[in-house]
Amino acid sequence: MRSVETFRDVQSEATEWRRYLHQNPELGYQLHNTATFVAEKLASFGINHIETGIAETGIVALIQGEGGDGPTIGLRADMDALPIVEASNKPWSSQIPGKMHACGHDGHTAMLLGAAKHLASTRNFKGSVALIFQPAEEVELPSGGLRMVQGGIMDRFGISQVFGMHNMPGMEIGKFGICDGPIMGSQDDFDLIVKGRGGHAASPHRTIDPVVIAAQIIIGLQTLVSRKTDPIESLVISVTKLNAARAYNIIPDRVEIAGTVRTLAPALQDFAEREILAAAQGIGRGFGADVEFKYRRSVPVTFNHTEGTNLAITAARNLVGPASVDDNIRVSMEAEDFAYMLETRPGAYIMLGNGPTAGVHHPTYDFNDEALPYGIGYWVNLVETVLAA
C-alpha cells in the first residue's frame, strides 16, 4: 500500500483544478462548465470510456486494471455548489455572484480527478473502477444521487460496491473518520398550513388566529421528541420556515409552517409522519382551525456496510497509520444523498479532515488544499485494496 508521500507530486496540479472549480461554481444540475472540465481532464489521462449527460450533467468513467478480470467498484464525488455569497476573501474566491463552493465539492471533484490520473497511469488492480461524478447533491428531490441510481448506473456499469468521501471541518488534516452502520441521518421534510379566519389585529376575538395556533403547534411538536420517543434513539424535528401576514395590523387567514425531520431509524420516520399530523390537527381543531399536511421522504439514512467499512478502514490506515483513523466516529444527523447509492450496493462513506476551517455551508468556508493528497491517496489505496491484483 502507498503512503501519502506518493501523492505529493500531484497536489499542486490538483490544487489548480480545485481552485479553478472554486472560482467557477455551478448549481444543481446546471453544471455544464464543470462537467466539460471534468470530462476533458479524464480524457487527457488516457481514459477512453467516459459517459456524460447522466442525470443531465453527471459523468461515469471506467478505468480497466491490468491485473486481469475482476469486479467493478464505484468511487463517487459530488460536483455542485451552493447559492451563497462568498466571504472567504481568498484569491480564488468565486467569480460568480451568489454562488460558491461552500461544501467542498470542488475539493471532492479534484481529489477524484487526481486519483483517476494516478490509476489510469498505473492500473495496478484487477477488474475496473467506475468514477462517478455526481450533480445536484445539494438540491431537494429528486437529487443527483437518486437520479443517477434511477438511471441504472449500478447495473449498466456493473458496479458491485460503491464508496464516497466528504471533507470534515474541525478534523485534523491527515485524519479520517468512519463507523459501521448509520453514519449520517435521514432527511424528511414537512409542510403544514394552519387555516383559520383572519381579521383586524385590533379585534382578535372575531378571528380564529392561525398565528397563535401555529405557535402552539410549533411548541407541541417538540414534545414528540422529548416525551414520545425513547431518549436513547435519535430524532430531530426542526421547524425552519414560518410565513404569515406581511402587515402589523392584519391577522391572516392562514399560516404556513415547514420543517425537517432527521433520524437514524426508518421506524422513527413513520412515527414522525404520523405524529406530526396528529399533533397539528389536534391543536388546530381545538382552536377551531383546519390543518393541511404534506410529508416527503427526502433522503434515507447513509448506512455503511460492514465489509465496505472494513475495506475503507484498511485503505485509510495503510495511508496514514492506525492512529489517524477513527473507526467509531460520532454519527451526524446531517443528510447525504450518497445514501441512495448505498441502498443499491454495499460500500461505505468516510470523512476526511479539513483542518480548522469554517463549517460547511458557511460564507467563509474553503476546502483545505492540504487535504488533497490524503483524499487522492485514500482513493488509490482503496482501489488497490478492494481490487488487489
UniProtKB/TrEMBL annotation:
It comes from Mesorhizobium shangrilense. This is M20 aminoacylase family protein. Residues 190-276 form the Peptidase M20 dimerisation domain. Signal peptide: none annotated. Pfam families: M20_dimer, Peptidase_M20. InterPro entries: Amidohydrolase, Bact_exopeptidase_dim_dom, Peptidase_M20, Peptidase_M20_dimer. It comes from the Bacteria. SUPFAM superfamilies: Bacterial exopeptidase dimerisation domain, Zn-dependent exopeptidases. Keywords: Hydrolase.
